[in-house]
Amino acid sequence: MEVKSRHHLRSDAIDEIREALAANLGVEVEADSFEKVDLEDADWEIVLVDGEAHVLYLDGDPFVTVQGANAYEPTDHVVTVDAGAIQFVSDGADVMRPGVVEADESIGECDLVVINEESHGKFLAVGRALTDGDDMVGAEGRVVDSIHHVGDDLFELSV
User: Fold this and answer.
1) Domain ranges (residues) in the chain
2) Which strand (E) or helix (H) includes residue 154?
3) Measuring CA to CA, which residue among 78, 75, 2, 3 is closest to residue 37?
4) pLDDT tens digits, residue range 92-130?
């Protein structure tokens, strides 16, 4: 992915990002600069926070990237997976119910979520919930559709 252009965001757009991330993920984003990045041949809408790709727009709403999740450590809309799921989730696989050890009960079907691993608390992916949070732990079935993960083009983006 190549950067086509970059421009600083207005204060109202920055406020929108801060408010959405606080409401959805329980994170406070304090930074000196917010820049929108237009990419060549990519569908991602990215915002650089102090020069790092920490925010992306999904369905028109701001959400964290994997790097952003690791920088700000969300407390809401978090799905935690066990060690056996790490490799699969890191390779872009959807999250399966047997790998889930815990899920935020406030998650609703179709909500955006962040996936972390239980051993070190590192975030591995961003996805869309296919079921409510209180129904994610169990024996079988997909529970999160992966959108962005460790090692994908967005994760490897350097600007």
Assistant:
1) 2-71, 74-155
2) helix 153-156
3) 3
4) 999 999 999 999 999 999 999 999 999 999 999 999 999
Residue 50 DSSP label: T
> What is the pTM assigned to this prediction?
0.93
Find, among 93, 159, 96, 158, the residue nearest to 131 by Cα. 96
For domain 74-155, which CATH number applies: 2.40.37.10, 3.40.50.1000, 2.60.40.420, 2.30.130.10?
Answer: 2.30.130.10
Q: 5: which residues sit within 8 A by CB, 6+ positions away? A: 37, 38
- pLDDT greater than 80 at residue 140: yes
Fold entry, domain 2-71: Nuclear Transport Factor 2; Chain: A, (3.10.450)
Confidence of residue 3 (pLDDT cuts 50, 70, 90): confident
Query: Between the CA atoms of 151, 152, 153 and 158, what dihedral angle is there, to the nearest 10 degrees?
Result: -30
